[in-house]
Amino acid sequence: MRIAELSRRSGVPVATIKYYLREGLLPAGELTSPNQARYSDDHLHRLRLVRAMVELGGLSIAAVREVLGALDDPEKSLHKAMGTISAAVAPPDLGADDEVAHAQVAAFLERQGWVCRPTSYAYKALVGVLATAREVGHERFADLLDGFADAARPLAEADLGYALSAGTKDEALEGVVVGTVLGDAAMAAVRALARRELSGTHQAATNHPCP
Q: HTH merR-type domain: which residues (predicted)?
């Protein structure tokens, strides 16, 4: 297909497709003339994946490039690729020097029986969250972590189950991308819906207490 058809089928403007090509997010098409190229269904599939990461997941071009690199590395194990993908979509590293936040994270991990290096993206991200919470006067926010862990376990199992149910490693890695990027966006939306429902129920109970 020509780039115009690729644009029509993917919903991505031609100018954006050309930008993705320049940035290496999309492999070059097969040249049919000096100024024309032909694209395949593989290009369409990759383009839709990139679009999901950028538009729905809010990933930067650099983060998308890292994720695609993990997808395309034949030597990288599923476990390591999952780490690369998760690190690429992690929030900025903040509060790295906050000793109290470090201690809170270490205590949380010990309670949960989880092993995680202080240099890992997840550890540093959580330190950043707790450091920011302390800065805005909400040190007790750390008390929520154990409840978050209880909720996160079945979510992590669902993520892994979705990825590992794929037929090939490539499909599994793509499942990790979809589960991580779109899964986080979906969970944020579901959490907002649940919070809205609970808030409405609480308000109704407050306004109309049981006799």
A: 1-70
